């Protein structure tokens, strides 16, 4: 009798195994999703930084969008032109001329230059301070609480005397600093050359009001606009440089505009040239400030 039970159990398990094999095979054929092999090839060509600089959560999601034709092949800021060329080869398309995008800080005022600063005792982040009135006179300038420093994974932006300063030798253009800045004073611009002219102020007020809150802010004199047609004044009084028409090989009129700016808010930014490095070779490098994410609760003395 025992042997009969064993045979029945074995037979039942065998029938179930054959049945489940058939079901799984049917499900595999029915629900199979064909994956384009180019997605894996594109993903392999990407740097794998997953920095979200392209606007997607990670490199794999960007690879899927590229293969689907939903996004340009030159959106990977970390990989740059060489990565875009590799993607163009994989997809069999031509690569149009493109430029690497790098951040520009549209503020040049350090703590010493800002007027009307008050003792801020709230949470030391730009996001928190930005919703509090009266932190400093200028409502457009850098708050200096290092949100951008904490967001950068490449150690490419530091706080110097309360002002965000980009290290273009380390910057890969991921755009994290631009996305996290609550005042939007950091924008990504096409660097058609390693050193580019930039407007380092974004105060839209009239000159008298600007001088009341900042020693070095743009006063809206429009001297730069008279020197070059590349400067527009769509945003009230502050000049906006048209980077689409910007030609780094024709700097004559831009140089005139730079020299005419009374507040010296037109600056050349980017990787330092050999001449710049030689001029500062003997200078001591200051200690890089580290972000302090304490809140007012951390220093509270509790009683009772």
Topology at a glance:
Blueprint: H1 2-30, H2 37-45, H3 59-67, H4 80-91, E1 101-105, H5 126-129, H6 147-151, E2 157-160, E3 163-166, H7 176-180, E4 186-190, E5 195-199, H8 207-213, H9 223-227, E6 231-232, E7 240-241, H10 252-260, E8 266-270, H11 274-279
Antiparallel strand pairs: 1-4, 2-3, 5-8, 6-7
Helix pairs in contact: 2-3, 2-4
What do you see in this structure?
- This protein has 304 residues and is an alpha+beta fold.
- It has 2 domains: 55 residues, 3-methyladenine DNA Glycosylase II, Chain A, domain 3 (Orthogonal Bundle); 178 residues, Alpha-Beta Plaits (2-Layer Sandwich).
- The protein is built from 11 helices and 8 strands.
- Helix 2 packs across helix 3.
- It starts with a helix and ends in a 25-residue tail after the last helix.
- The low-confidence runs, each spanning 5 or more residues with pLDDT under 50, are 285-304
Mean pLDDT, to the nearest integer, reads 84
Shape: elongated
CATH architecture of the largest domain: 2-Layer Sandwich
- Sheet with most strands: strand arrangement: 1-4
The number of E-state strands comes to: 8
CA radius of gyration is: 28 Å
Q: How many domains make up the 3D coordinates?
A: 2
Largest sheet: 2 strands, antiparallel
By secondary-structure content and strand pairing, the structural class works out as alpha+beta
Distance from N terminus to C terminus (CA atoms, Å) equals 79 Å
What is the CATH level 1 assignment of the largest domain? Alpha Beta
Portion in strands:
5-15%
Residues in helix, % = 25-40%
Task: Indicate the CATH topology of the largest domain.
Answer: Alpha-Beta Plaits
Number of helices: 11
Name the helix and strand elements from N-terminus to C-terminus, one letter apiece.
HHHHEHHEEHEEHHEEHEH
């Amino acid at each position: 009798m025992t042997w009969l039970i064993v045979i029945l159990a074995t037979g039942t398990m065998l029938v179930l195994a054959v049945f489940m094999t058939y079901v799984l095979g049917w499900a595999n054929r029915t629900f199979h999703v064909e994956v384009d092999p180019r997605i894996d090839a594109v993903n392999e060509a990407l740097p794998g930084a997953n920095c979200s600089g392209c606007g997607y959560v990670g490199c794999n999601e960007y690879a899927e969008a590229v293969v689907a034709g939903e996004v340009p092949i030159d959106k990977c800021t970390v990989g740059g032109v060489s990565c875009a060329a590799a993607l163009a080869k994989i997809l069999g398309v031509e690569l149009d001329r493109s430029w690497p995008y790098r951040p520009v800080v549209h503020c040049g005022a350090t703590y010493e230059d800002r007027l009307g600063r008050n003792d801020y005792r709230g949470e030391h982040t730009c996001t928190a301070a930005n919703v509090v009135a009266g932190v400093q006179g200028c409502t457009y300038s850098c708050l200096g609480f290092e949100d951008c420093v904490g967001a950068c994974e490449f150690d490419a932006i530091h706080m110097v005397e309360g002002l965000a300063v980009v290290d273009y030798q380390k910057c890969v253009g991921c755009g994290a600093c631009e996305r996290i800045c609550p005042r939007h004073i950091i924008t990504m611009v096409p660097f058609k050359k390693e050193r580019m002219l930039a407007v380092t102020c974004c105060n839209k007020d009239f000159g008298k009001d600007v001088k009341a809150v900042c020693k070095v802010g743009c006063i809206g004199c429009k001297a730069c606009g008279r020197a070059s047609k590349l400067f527009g004044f769509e945003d009230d009084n502050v000049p906006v440089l048209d980077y689409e028409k910007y030609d780094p090989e024709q700097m004559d009129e831009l140089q005139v505009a730079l020299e005419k700016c009374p507040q010296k808010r037109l600056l050349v930014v980017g990787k330092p040239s050999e001449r710049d490095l030689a001029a500062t070779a003997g200078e001591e490098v200051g200690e890089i400030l580290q972000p302090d994410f304490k809140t007012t609760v951390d220093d509270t003395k509790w009683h009772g």
